[in-house]
């Protein structure tokens, strides 16, 4: 869904001071118009709350323009355009099936296929419309573009979007077979895609392969786990400040981890460069189905106000986070509260500090890492945004090291 962003006095952020903080919260940056990606298709003026906003006249046209297509294309054509050979199914969600592909140069890619616009229920849910999926396309593209060098806001912590296509047709036999292989090996909660009709539409997102999800990842020690947490904090802070971004579904299935030879990772946040050690691991954030950003003055978000199921589940801290978000936002999902990001970070820390299968548990490094996660977990919910957390724990370190360099 997209809707004109409301005046900032309706946002909910920064209502309380964090406990024991020694910093002041800086004024929001004015320099937000660095995006090179604007709406492409014919636009129309929309008036919301006495303010006029430019939006695409038809979501379908905007999607086609972003896909570089006039009309939906066949699966064969889409895979040929991506130069991708589909190898196996690697994941699934309520809306999408996810396949691993390889390219002729050996590069790995991932294709997420989401059926749209049809009347048939998919895994018990209504299919998304062009308008609903447009938000996810824009959010994916904007967050991916944060990796482009920019002194104000820069992070490569969000999955790289390589291509978006609009596809039509029956599921190819090969993909149905790969779906069945996955079902036999892991079991699937989804309906088989074999019965889609000839005129079924899909959006295919091609992204970089980001590794395996945090769910079940075996860390060497707690310092490595904390490094993943720190990478997520910094990526979130950049997007939060740049787009008033809230991920709103940052469970362990939506964080990917892979090995890296790069010793450091660099972030630009409000013009400040922050460098952290990777400890040989790289975290990537995926899945913006529930996310919210402000793009060209428009608020893109998923309206969960009438969803009942999402807020009733029990049994894991994850499900409590949806209820916490609802309370923080007072069920107004267009509003901005960066505290939703803080709640997800608290959940994440809770998961990381409960890991029991570290490979190396006796070293001082490991124990220090565990201690740090526990201490941070105790105070994290007293912050109102990820930016505040960064100012408190990361930016000051940079200032200190700058001071040392100047001495
Ligand atoms: N770029 C990627 N690299 C590696 N695995 C991925 C990638 N994208 C998705 N996956 C896998 O597929 C699963 C579902 O993808 P996701 O984008 O989260 O879809 P959904 O919105 O349906 O949850 C993820 O939990 C992850 O295991
Ligand atoms: Mg997911």
TrEMBL record:
UniProt KW Chloroplast keyword: no
Look up the record and give one Gene Ontology term from the biological process aspect: mitotic cell cycle
InterPro entries for the chain: GSG2_C (IPR024604), Kinase-like_dom_sf (IPR011009), Prot_kinase_dom (IPR000719), Protein_kinase_ATP_BS (IPR017441)
Q: SMART domains from the xrefs?
A: DUF3635, S_TKc
Reactions accelerated catalytically: L-seryl-[protein] + ATP = O-phospho-L-seryl-[protein] + ADP + H(+); L-threonyl-[protein] + ATP = O-phospho-L-threonyl-[protein] + ADP + H(+)
**Which Pfam families does this one have?**
Haspin_kinase
Q: Does the keyword Ribosomal protein apply?
A: no
Task: Give the transmembrane region(s).
Answer: none
The leader peptide range reads: none
Instruction: Write out the annotated subcellular location.
Output: Chromosome; Cytoplasm
What domain of life does the UniProt record list for this protein's source?
Answer: Eukaryota
Enzyme class at the top of the EC tree: transferase
MF terms (GO), sorted A to Z: ATP binding; histone H3T3 kinase activity
Record's keyword terms, sorted = ATP-binding, Chromosome, Cytoplasm, Kinase, Nucleotide-binding, Serine/threonine-protein kinase, Transferase
Record-linked PANTHER family: INTERLEUKIN-1 RECEPTOR-ASSOCIATED KINASE, SERINE_THREONINE-PROTEIN KINASE HASPIN
Protein name per the record? non-specific serine/threonine protein kinase
